[in-house]
Target: Putative phosphoenolpyruvate synthase regulatory protein
Amino acid sequence: MSEVPTRTVFFVSDGTGITAETLGHSLLAQFPEGRFRQVRAPFVDDIDKAIECAAQIREAAAADGVRPIVFSTLVNDDTIAALHKADALFLDLFERFIGPLETELGQRSTHAVGRFHGIADSINYKHRIEAINFAMAHDDGVSSDGELAEADVILVGVSRSGKTPTSLYLAMQFGVKAANYPLIPEDFERNKLPGELHKYRTKLFGLTIAPERLSQIRQERRPNSRYASFENCRYEIDAAHKLMRRENIRWLDSTTKSIEEISATILQTVRVDRPGF
Amino acid sequence: MSEVPTRTVFFVSDGTGITAETLGHSLLAQFPEGRFRQVRAPFVDDIDKAIECAAQIREAAAADGVRPIVFSTLVNDDTIAALHKADALFLDLFERFIGPLETELGQRSTHAVGRFHGIADSINYKHRIEAINFAMAHDDGVSSDGELAEADVILVGVSRSGKTPTSLYLAMQFGVKAANYPLIPEDFERNKLPGELHKYRTKLFGLTIAPERLSQIRQERRPNSRYASFENCRYEIDAAHKLMRRENIRWLDSTTKSIEEISATILQTVRVDRPGF
Model:
């Protein structure tokens, strides 16, 4: 059997290219045997840049011996025509979907270049930046009295259970203000939630993790420490489970989950009082 | 003229729904006059959940008086069929694009549920989490000697010019390790780059911002301070420009740009030595 050739995949956009890349990655993940080399081509917002991009596509085709795959979110007809002069499998997101949407809504789309990523929506954007600042300022149990009232979600869990990257993802992707609080041995000895968390019970969400995995992650940080030892990890996780069960905190196991999956689950569970949630 | 009715828009997925939502937002941004109410429906991974989701779609249609728009990344045929029993404009990302890809690649797709977001790609995922930890540990000039050697990008600029959210976005979306360093009055007096930055000249990228906007952002943090005054902001920005020009640092103005746009521009400029860049 012949070997699968490497294909070059282009993500072409008149804006950042992030929508094209997100969809492209999702679709290519359905072909685990494929071998793909990825090229980003953002800000292709005039014909000259489209002609240059078409040349790059032709070069890749010659180098690979197979034609490239192009995920595109271009909205300008002339730019699209210039790009299509290269030979490739073009998967045009705009072209496929905008027609049915125009018919359904009874409105013409603006065909506005650079708007494709939707960040022109400045209220949402402002929420996201505020939420990122909030997550940075309320990471790892850092919070002044009363500030947690502003949080949409408060994550709790033992050190290195995934709270910080999840808080940041919730902020970045959804504009959700997430604080996070570590559960530490002192909390287990007192058998109480830290600080003023009891006041915000409806906002709490717990993360847990398999002790083997936790020990592995902690070893990378502090090799051969008591902190990283399997015994200690198992003790902390057991104690955290007891505390969360007693306090009636919803939780999930982050061991085999991505921050995307954890965040989507949290948003199904914790009620965020804002339009869009 | 009659008022535009509010439409309910569903983002339906057997996974997190983030791909459906990203594409949906991009397309809806082309209809600035539309009024949309958004509903996320992640983890629709069996027929029962699809039937329940179809019921939600019918309810929304009845409440709005117009049929909803559904962006879907479902991959299972039976689940899709159950969902399509509701009346809506279905924009199926998987269905539209997977056929042409299968033909082109000469491979069957796995139709693997929950894989659509592509995060099964665990090497990339590991890079992203490491990069987030790196950005957190190297925010705002915090770096021990030698650690910057690991950075892919080092952002510089005056306080509140957008360095921190951009560093985090580079990490989260692209797995790029970004440190950031504030340029402060002491640097301007010495007219030199802070710390050991001169050693990493090829990794440096500057952010600047209009003094009016900077003053506004700083006022929200420290009202009526010298730090936030327009005069001081103008002084710091002028001095930063001089320093960056003298040191030959590429930069861009973040005033009207999103972190997505800033990040995509940085990746076009700074060379990241890793597959995929």
